[in-house]
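Hey L., structure's done. Input below.
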Amino acid sequence: MRFILQMARREIRSSWRRLLFFFLCIGIGVGSIVALRSTIQNVNQAMTGEARLLLTADVQVDGGRPWTPETLAAIEGVARAPRVEARTETIEANTMARPADAAREGALMVELKGIEPSFPLYGDFQLANNQPYDYRLLEGNGALAAPLLLERLDLKVGDEIKIGDSTFQIRGVIEREPGAAGGFRLGPRVFVERGAIEATGLTGFGSRARRRILFKTPAGEMNAVVTGLRAALKNQLVNVRSYRESQENLSEDFDRAENYLSLTGLVVLVLGGIGVSSVTRVFIEQKRKAIAVLKCLGGTGRQITAAYLAQVLALGLAGSLFGVALAKVALVVVRHYFAASLPPNMEYGFTPGAVAQGLGLGLLISVLFSALPLLRIRHIKPNVLLRDEAGARRKGFDVLRWLTGALVVVALAALTSWQAGSIRVGLFFLAGLMLTALVLYLAALLLVFLVRRARHIRSFALRQAVNSLHRPGNQTRVIVMAVGLGVFLVLATQSLQTNLLAEFDFERRGALPNMYLIDIQKDQTAGVSELVQQATGTRPELVPTLRTRITGIDGRDVDLEQATQGRERGMLAREYVVTYRPRLEANETIIDGKFWDASSTLEPEVSIEEGLVGLGGMNVGSAVTFDILGRKIDARVTSVRRVDWRNSRTGFLVLFRPGALDDAPQMFIAPINGPQDAGENTRFQRRLLDAYPNVSVIDVADVVRSISRILSNVTLAVSFIGGFVLLSGVLILVGSIAMTKFQRVYEAAVLKTLGAKRKVLLVILLAEYGLLGLVAGVIGSLAAVALSISVSRYVLDIPWTFTPAINFTGIVATVALVITIGALSSLDVLTRKPLAILRSQ
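Output:
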């Protein structure tokens, strides 16, 4: 061991420059894993540690309908002292807000929340300018509003806004609200008194308001309260949950996110491993004579292999520690740029588990990817000092080499499963990664096969560049695979983003509406139609809507307790918005059964969207019982529809035959194309809301802008990861150049001796790297096109459009990057004098 350790130390000291890229490849991979895991674990700890503050209670009961006396009695029978210490109620509704001053234009959808004095049971408000929160700010039609409302409507504290039939004065600006968890919202939050929200007229018939009752329980009573409420409210359209369940759900979501993000870090680390394998292989080739001398002096293959393995472990450990340092820098960057989007109480330090995993993975990847190259030491004989057998082929089946390769694959499968938290996901991930790498590797082999036969190129410089791609020891296959994989990830992400955003392009939407008017009551239809016609010149189509719940299928009552599967329970427990009409829309197609016609009977019939088939056994011919405002209606399923949701003006999962619901209490929605001019659009919304304050306006443009921002953020994150992969490929490129530079220097010396000028040598270098970049860019681009087609058509179900600008730019950028890196790394090849080099040979 003393000999082995001393030899490893001497080799590291003498060869550290050549092994620098081994160190960097491991460092970047470990750094990405430690940074990603630490960030997610810190967010998880901050969020789940405050799950009670997010719910603002220990137990919550919520529903979408007004509380009935029976429901309230059932709740009171369970949730009372001494099991409950405190209780409060809230009401939430999406509605429109506008300045109370008629001379001021503008309207904005807001999330209105009515609260009681005891709200919140946990947590507190933080108002702007250090203003203390007091419930008296809401009394007498006061309101607390999010900053976005004041910004969009050009308001300030003290101004008044109209919501529904009521006027509220803004008395404070919310910096942080109890239970705020971020996420997508239709509009800024506004808080008012719970009694005041009832006076707005927004909680009557057809209201989409959500009512919640919150409870604070003594220690040890929470589970009993939850169990009792669920038993008392069985099969009612009411949800009961505790903060601990929210905590568990959050923790599961964060664990899943952490595992998937760690897989992306593992991609970087595996690419680093490819670089490690390449560097180790070339390094062993360079040390052939030194190894032969050691064997002549009595060193055994096992001792020499152990020495180089110790060197690999030392470099792997050093690279892993460097990766931890890189992760610390990344966490500082996260804190500086993203702190506003993260929990305020979040820590930004390392988590022990993330550091341990990073260090362990760094060492494992170093050993796994160095194993096969180190086995080459066995075949280096002492007679290498007398004759060169570098090109000789080994005969026979190398059992140890194949067993080591199989062990490496099994170990990688175990690592990916560990990082994914699932054997199935890990194996699929590894299979996808290996398939992509295999395609790139085969493409590189094809390139080498073709250039071997390109012997009739007239240009001397180009002919030399082509020959360089298949010289012994060249890293063509590894470089194409690594750089091509990075290009593939970056371009695939950009292409998918472009196709997704194109789905929300109004110019491509044709006759689809850019605005929806909802919550129109039956006696308001004529007036709303008149206002829309005056503003747009077109009379709108008013679509009747009703809210219903499925309570029985084929004579069996729906029992939510028996619906154990997540999808079944979620679909059966929800309320459906349904409509009735005599015809199909242009975007609907019957795929099973028969749609009703004039000869149909008056028996209630429904047509269901194909996604509902199989729900509780539902299919064509099934008898379904619907509960519409307490009235039970039995209807038979006569057809199944396929709906093209992308071209849908109004989409419904359940469609009734006209006649059964014509006289039922109903609301209307109107899909319209609002005025194109921004000013006229604002004035139209203001006139509409002044006349009909209960009507809400959903501006599709605002929703599209929000979705675009989310897509941009997701694309930025994935592109950032793809950039890491591309950086790993560039490092492998630089490392390969550094490791094979001795060959380039010797070839350049020979060419200079034969009369080649520096200009010719430079053209050879640029042509070689240009070809490498072109092949990697083209292969990565084609793979990105294939992936974007597959995801667009079979996952997102959107039309795919070729984006030549993205692909062409990606290929050009890849060629330029590879040429630049290659030329900068090989400049000394052009400047060295040939005499000293030839003498050394």
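DSSP finds 24 helices and 21 strands in the chain. Residues 243-286 form the longest helix (44 residues).

-- N.
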